[in-house]
Amino acid sequence: MKKELLHIVLADDDADDRMLFADAVDEIDITTSLKVFKHGQELMDYLMDESVLLPDIVFLDLNMPIKNGMQCLKEIRQTPHLAALCVAIYSTSSSEQDIEETFVKGANIYINKPTSFTKLKRTVEKVLRLNWQYHTANLNKHNFLLRL
Amino acid sequence: MKTYLKYDHDKVGKSLLKFLLEKEKVTYTILDTGQLELKGNIDTKRRDEIIAVLAAHGIYFLEDKKTALVQRIRDTITEMIHDEDIVRKHKVSVYLSKKLGYSYTYLSTLFSESTYTSIENFIILKKIDYAKTLLAQGDLSLTDIAFKLNYSSVAHLSGQFKKATGITPSQFQRILKKRTQQLTDT
């Protein structure tokens, strides 16, 4: 049985992190397409263009120049055609307050940037599998919260 | 006024389907198995038109049998979880295989091959999703919810909730509450 292609976007200002993420996605046994952006403004310009196909999931680094992850998250939730997007925060901060704040502001997933490639691969895979369930199995997207 | 809504997806789907088919002036029968039988002379062009009308409302023709069966497994699990009696009286594997007429081994292999997860994990996911909906509605305590979903204890439900979502049920409630507050503030 053929499974549909999963569209992923990532905004992260760290070139190494972008590369590792792309490698991890590549090695996972899920058919995906990945687009990467260097900062929040680049991502928002892309998402605001109504002619583009919206991604199934957005991975957002919190600390980025020009426009940070929190600002992107706010704009996404305030924009009607983007409001239902699944947003995963991908950050080095593990302060409980930061985490809860992002959930309150509308994030669906919070990921502490894993310290090894194996862990990263496992984490991204878990997120993508779960996200796929939300897209196909009639789960309540409004209540989609996951912390890894 | 603001209120939470709960949808009976099956019912909503069926009444919408009926409405659309009648508008299209098609004679049809909806079978209990989730199948739709279109009657009369329907050529490919007409069929494509009907497919397009339904697809615009989120109703899709499942072309291959396996996709349809996977969907029936999902529907049966949902139905089971939402029904306190069934969930208490039956074992999932037996219930699924009886209801769908295939061995559990076959169903379970097909499901794992087609959905990036196993039936067992899907059940947990569905139960936690339902628990979240009930928590969001706020009428039931965690104890009530644990009982309703047939968990042996509140601790068992809390543990599974935390394992599946990374947060505790009370954190979940707090986040939802703050989200709602934030909406009313702005």
Plain-language structure description:
- The complex is a heterodimer of chains A (148) and B (186).
- Chain A has 148 residues and is of the alpha/beta class.
- Chain A has helices spanning 15-27, 40-48, 69-78, 96-104, 117-136; strands at 6-11, 32-37, 57-60, 87-91, 109-112, 146-147.
- In chain A, helix 1 crosses helix 5 and helix 2 runs parallel beside helix 3.
- Chain A starts with 5 loop residues before the first strand and ends with a strand.
- Chain B is mainly alpha-helical.
- Helix content of chain B is 68%, strand content 3%.
- A two-stranded antiparallel sheet of chain B has the order 1-2.
- In chain B, strand 1 (28-30) and strand 2 (36-38) form a beta hairpin.
- The model of chain B has no long low-confidence stretch (mean pLDDT 88).
- Chain A binds chain B through residues 1, 3, 30, 100, 103-106, 110, 128-130, 132-133, 136-140, 142-143, 145-148, and chain B through 9, 64, 66-67, 70, 74, 78, 113-117, 122, 125-126, 129, 132-133, 136, 165-167, 171-172, 174-176, 178-179, 182.
In short:
The complex is a heterodimer of chains A (148) and B (186). By secondary structure, chain A is α/β, with parallel strands linked by helices. Helix content of chain A is 41%, strand content 18%.
